[in-house]
């Protein structure tokens, strides 16, 4: 028996060592290639540095053609320099071995372009020769003889690396993912696309190493930042990433199908493909600041930084950083398109300040019945205009002033932009009341020029008077979005502006919530209101920032590439983002969550843009998805849409996906969940609160998971518990994060604890969908903690999650 075991051991030992030596040989082969790439890159760096310095010295001399050529050279050199200086961790990550192609055409990167194999590429006996090998990396590198050493992952020649599948392999026989760190190749993982072939490369059989790169990537521990998926983009994802940027690219897919990853890679692809066009900027709108910080490292890792702004939907308006989440009932009011009517009235109504109204009311009363000895109330400064012109006193009061204001507000222009017209009508009214007007009438019959002069000096006289200036500031103040929002916190005034739009209860709740905004604590939904108000009011003229003149700015793209400039790429991106109000391409992540008012805000940033919209209706936390869809359609206008669907869940193991699907069936009956790509054999765990101590139970369950995974643990609780939960977990270290249910959107952890499904589901009308989001955050393990409210069965399974 023992002898037999030993024999088996020896046999498998030999097989293993053979595999190991093949693996090592293959790794060594890739190392030779990588060394060659780095040698070439060093040459390019020297060339680039020389070119940059030379260009800087020469300034602007030469013919326009020569200058353009030099600019282009400098641009290319700069791109290399900038990216190479970043020293990527896995600069070279892929390789494909291809059959002979149908035609002999080569693309600009030196690779053959045909997708299908030539007719005689495979011999009748099933053998074939590898005709071409391409290495894929983060940027393209040509050898000195223009043969491709590395193909940029976004180049057409690299597409088969992502698109080829065993069902539709094209020319690809073997697809290899290369893992490296710095300049050292660490490993390779192969997928065979044509397993039926016996292919040879340089006379030797093509070896196949490992179980495939995708599984290796999915099994890795997660950190607090997202990684790029450039080495393992799947075919259906690649179709979206490389879709032409015409009008709207619309992508739907369940949790974990890679929508966020695809959106980010698409931004990098679009920049590669048409850098000039997208120098107008790409905006990525993300639902939460947490998701922004989770994803913002991906683009730099793809070599792109300068032109892309990732912003949370609550941070789209400069200077207004939303820190608060509204109750679902308030969010529903603030997000609804009904608010547009209220804001339109408020933007005009706020011209009349509260003091002005009160003063008008009490003066009316005071005029009627002033008690003996009682002082007549002082009028508000905006209630009476008293000026002296040509030595005579002229006054406008009450009804006259009101009529002028109404006439001006009859125009459709933003309120702040109507101020010059209001000023003119005031002067007209004063003029027609003045004796000078009569005199001018007489004069004008004889000499119109003299009459005009008289009027003009009348205007000058008045407009230089302090009384007139003070009156105008009080009567037609420059309104700010914050000021109007604060005015809306006055329940009485809000009630007037919301008449026939909101009911009394809604007015009360909204006014109360806006009182917090008046103190500067904006909620995510307030920001869309501020943006709408900015449009309704008209932005006050801002002084333009003066930029220093730099002759190098004239060189195409050079400014962003000069590594020695004081402003870093990131600073430049931030500055441009501040100055920019519209973008060339807008990407909306988690689009199902945008409210109608938010869609209007985002829509204004991409009026002439092309769009990529990714989302999942099943994860919508907005209670009326139909209304949001209507608003989305309005923002996107009649632009044609190309629709894509992502169908595979790369995040959750099948065991977790199956549990989440039970909630999906309750939340959206009939909706299909995506197929999980892997299973771990670890079933979700159900724990019931022990000894009535929720804090201790959650802490113990989180600690248990920390022992079982290498990476992060997310603890998802109902929104009202998020601060409490952070305290419960404080001592467990920074691998554990406490999250409110709405904050979990888009994020993922190695393991998650979902605390009280019933509490999360009952929090809002969309609660079941929010719970579905919470249950789909784990890449490896899930624990569900139930309290009494969850009505757990004997096995601890809460009512909502039972089959
Ligand atoms: N082709 C791939 N190769 C490796 N990992 C992938 C691939 N596609 C997706 N993933 C991984 O799967 C996880 C889910 O991706 P992502 O967050 O983009 O999905 P999502 O559709 O936006 O999910 P959700 O809707 O739940 O927010 C991420 O860890 C991502 O890196």
From TrEMBL:
GO molecular function: 3'-5' DNA helicase activity; ATP binding; DNA binding; hydrolase activity
Record Gene3D superfamilies: P-loop containing nucleotide triphosphate hydrolases (3.40.50.300)
Annotated positions binding ATP: 253-260
Annotated EC: 3.6.4.12
Domain UvrD-like helicase ATP-binding residue range list: 232-653
Cellular-component GO terms for this entry: cytosol
Highest rank taxon of the organism: Bacteria
Composition bias type Polar residues, residue spans: 11-20
SMART domains, alphabetized: AAA
Cited InterPro entries: AAA+_ATPase, DNA_helicase_UvrD/REP, P-loop_NTPase, UvrD-like_ATP-bd, UvrD-like_helicase_C
Keywords: ATP-binding, Helicase, Hydrolase, Nucleotide-binding
Gene Ontology annotations of biological process type: recombinational repair
Class in the EC hierarchy, top level: hydrolase
SUPFAM superfamilies reported for this sequence: P-loop containing nucleoside triphosphate hydrolases
Region of interest (Disordered), residue spans: 1-24, 347-380
Protein name: DNA helicase IV
Organism name: Streptomyces hundungensis
């Amino acid at each position: 028996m023992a002898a037999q075991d030993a024999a088996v051991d020896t046999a498998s030992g030999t097989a293993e060592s053979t595999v190991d030596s093949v693996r090592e040989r293959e790794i060594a082969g890739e190392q030779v290639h990588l060394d060659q790439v780095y040698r070439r890159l060093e040459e390019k760096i020297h060339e680039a540095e020389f070119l940059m310095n030379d260009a800087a010295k020469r300034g602007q001399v030469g013919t326009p053609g020569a200058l353009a050529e030099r600019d282009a050279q400098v641009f290319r050199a700069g791109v290399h320099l900038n990216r190479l200086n970043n020293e990527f961790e896995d600069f070279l990550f892929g390789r494909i071995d291809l059959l002979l192609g149908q035609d002999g055409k080569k693309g600009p990167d030196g690779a053959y372009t045909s997708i299908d194999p030539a007719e005689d590429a495979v011999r009748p006996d099933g053998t074939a020769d590898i005709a071409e090998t391409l290495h894929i990396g983060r940027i393209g590198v040509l050898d000195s003889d223009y043969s491709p050493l590395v193909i940029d992952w976004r180049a057409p020649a690299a597409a088969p690396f992502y698109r080829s599948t065993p069902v539709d392999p094209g020319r690809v026989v073997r697809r290899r993912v290369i893992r490296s760190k710095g300049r050292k190749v660490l490993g390779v993982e192969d997928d065979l696309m044509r397993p039926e072939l016996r292919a040879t490369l340089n006379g030797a059989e093509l070896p196949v190493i490992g179980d495939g790169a995708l599984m290796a990537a999915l099994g890795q521990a997660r950190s607090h930042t997202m990684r790029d998926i450039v080495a393992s983009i799947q075919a259906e994802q690649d179709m979206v990433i490389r879709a032409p940027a015409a009008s709207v690219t619309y992508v739907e897919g369940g949790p974990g199908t890679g929508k966020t990853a695809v959106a980010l890679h698409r931004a990098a692809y679009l920049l590669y493909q048409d850098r000039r066009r997208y120098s107008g900027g790409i905006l990525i709108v993300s639902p939460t600041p947490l998701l922004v910080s989770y994803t913002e490292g991906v683009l730099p890792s793809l070599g792109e930084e300068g032109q892309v702004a990732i912003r949370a939907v609550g941070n789209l308006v400069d200077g207004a950083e939303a820190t608060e989440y509204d109750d679902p009932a308030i969010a529903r009011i603030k997000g609804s398109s009904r608010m547009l009517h209220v804001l339109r009235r408020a933007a005009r109504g706020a011209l009349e300040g509260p003091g002005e109204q009160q003063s008008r009311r009490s003066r009316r009363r005071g005029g009627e019945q002033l008690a003996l000895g009682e002082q007549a109330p002082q009028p508000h400064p905006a209630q009476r205009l008293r000026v002296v012109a040509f030595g005579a006193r002229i006054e406008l009061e009450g009804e006259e002033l009101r009529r002028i204001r109404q006439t001006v507000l009859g125009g459709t222009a933003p309120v702040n932009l109507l101020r010059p017209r209001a000023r003119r009508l005031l002067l007209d009214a004063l003029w027609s009341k003045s004796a000078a007007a009569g005199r001018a009438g007489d004069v004008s019959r004889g000499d119109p020029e003299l009459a005009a002069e008289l009027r003009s000096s009348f205007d000058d006289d008045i407009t230089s008077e302090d009384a007139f200036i003070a009156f105008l500031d009080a009567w037609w103040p420059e309104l700010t979005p914050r000021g109007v929002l604060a005015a809306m916190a006055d329940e009485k005034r809000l009630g007037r502006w919301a008449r026939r739009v909101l009911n009394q209860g809604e007015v009360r709740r909204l006014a109360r919530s806006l009182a917090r905004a008046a103190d500067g604590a904006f909620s995510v939904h307030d920001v869309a209101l501020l943006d709408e108000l900015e449009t309704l009011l008209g932005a006050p003229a801002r002084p333009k920032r003066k930029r220093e003149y730099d002759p190098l700015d004239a060189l195409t793209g050079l400014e962003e590439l000069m590594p020695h400039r004081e402003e870093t790429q990131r600073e430049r991106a931030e500055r441009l983002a501040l100055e920019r109000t519209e973008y060339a391409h807008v990407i909306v992540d988690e689009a199902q969550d945008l409210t109608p008012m938010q869609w209007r805000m985002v829509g204004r940033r991409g009026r002439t843009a092309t769009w990529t919209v990714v989302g999942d209706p099943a994860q919508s936390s907005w209670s009326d998805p139909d209304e949001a869809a209507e608003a989305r359609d309005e923002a996107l206008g009649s632009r044609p849409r190309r629709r894509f669907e992502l169908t595979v869940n790369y995040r959750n193991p099948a065991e977790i996906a199956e549990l989440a699907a039970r909630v999906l069936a309750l939340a959206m009956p009939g909706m299909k969940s995506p197929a999980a790509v892997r299973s771990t054999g670890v079933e979700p765990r159900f724990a019931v609160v022990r000894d009535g101590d929720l804090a201790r139970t959650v802490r113990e369950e989180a600690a248990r998971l920390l022992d079982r995974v290498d990476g992060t643990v997310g603890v998802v609780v109902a929104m009202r518990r998020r601060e409490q939960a952070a305290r419960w977990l404080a001592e467990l270290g920074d691998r554990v994060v406490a999250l409110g249910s709405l904050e979990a959107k888009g994020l993922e952890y190695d393991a998650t604890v979902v605390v009280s499904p019933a509490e999360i589901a009952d929090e809002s009308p969309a609660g079941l969908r929010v719970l579905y989001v919470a249950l789909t955050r784990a890449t490896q393990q899930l624990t569900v903690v139930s309290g009494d409210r969850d009505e757990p069965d004997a096995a601890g399974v809460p009512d909502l999650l039972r089959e």
